[in-house]
Amino acid sequence: MATLLKGAAAAAALNERTAAVIEGLKAKGITPALGILRVGERPDDLSYERGAVKRCDALGIAVKKYLLPEDVSQEKLMETIKGINEDAAIHGALIFRPLPKHLDDEAVRQALLPEKDVDGITDGSLLGVFAGVPKGFPPCTAQACMEILEQAGIDPKGKEAVVVGRSLVVGRPAAMLLLQRNATVTICHTRTQDMEGVCRRAQILIVAAGRAGVIGADHVSAGQTVIDVGIHVGEDGKLRGDVDFQAAEPIVEAITPVPGGVGAVTTAVLASHVVEAASRSVRS
Questions:
Q1: Do the domains at 29-121 and 140-263 have one common CATH topology?
Q2: Which of 8, 141, 169, 235 has the CA that lies 20 to 30 A from 122?
Q3: Is the whole-model pTM more than 0.90?
């Protein structure tokens, strides 16, 4: 039976470190603050917003919401982002995406200052991830994978890591974060030949394919650590991941559950990024 890498433990450890930094900032008269920009009322946005606000409230991070109607104009949206950029009291910003189709997503992403981009959506933040420099922040979900590994005491150094998925939201950033920790990294995608074989040789397998149950028993092997980023609602109404948990769990060494794995860590990462942004503002 595999060890379950539950996100709650990683989130608690990260929250403890974040709280200590907040205490130091508040001693200097600085309260870290998150700006939440939401267009419309998509249910998944509302759910994540509630979790983020709850996390920030518990840690003592201020939250300011910028709530715009679904039919908001591009001009009004850009004006709102400009206001966030110019407000020195807002240290980090979370912009919910995807945006309604009439809005220019790329223009929105590039309008936000990288130093306030706490969820890694701008080119500036991604440049920081790929170059290994503290410019902006990595996407929260990619960072959450690393927090789970750290909490479990799994050092990527010298290990063979495979990432399934090449999106800029999780796959490629996760690969770069592993590389920064001196892992040997392979990225798999829809054109990968013998994906089963490539995945089986991994010591660390991060799956962000975006398809429920795409990784099964043929993709895993004994001794592996499997991080499942996917989350899907099945026909039975139950949540499941990109990994067929029932097939993989008896084989591998450790695996994240869905739910209760990576998703449980993302708001803790978001809060830590806001606090780091506040700390950088003091140092600059």
A1: yes
A2: 8
A3: yes
